[in-house]
C-alpha cells in the first residue's frame, strides 16, 4: 500500500483489524517477564482469586493490539510517530482462549500551525471479545506528515 497523508484522512474513517486469539502460554510468558502477578502466571492461585481463573495482563492485551495495528499497516508506508495515549481502559478481564478484534476510528485530524508539513491524528481504539463485549479502549495521538508539495 502506498503512503496515506494527513490530507487523506477524515474524522469518521474507521477500520477493523484482524481477529486474534489470546493463547494461555503467551499470557503466562508475557506476565512472567512484565507483570508477574498470580492472576496472570499461576492458574491455581488465579482460580481462587477475584477473577476465578487466569487472565491476561492488560499490558499484554495492549501489546497484542499494537501488533495487530502494525501487521495490518492501515496507513501504508507513512512514517508515523506515536506521541501519546489517553483514556486507556481495561474494562473486562481477557481470559486465555479469547478471540479479540480491534476497531479503530479517527476522531480528529489537525494540521500544525507552526509546522504545516505535519499534523496530528487522534484515533479511538475499541477492543472487543468473541461475545462482542468491550474489553479495552483507548485514545491515541499520532504525528502524521502532510502530503509533500
From TrEMBL:
Domain MaoC-like: 21-126
Gene3D superfamilies named in the record: Hotdog Thioesterase
Coiled coil regions, renumbered to chain: none
Protein name per its UniProtKB record: Enoyl-CoA hydratase
One Pfam family here: MaoC_dehydratas
InterPro entries linked: HotDog_dom_sf, MaoC-like_dom, MCH/BMMD
Domain of life of the organism encoding this protein: Bacteria
